[in-house]
Amino acid sequence: AALWIAPYIDNQDVYHQPSSVFFVIKPSAWGKPRIN
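RESULT FIELD:
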């Protein structure tokens, strides 16, 4: 999944660039997951 962070200016007047964060919600698995 991807999360887009919009550009913003914080309370110290610092401009933050827009950025994207990518993360995995559910790890993918091939076939049946093995149980160790």
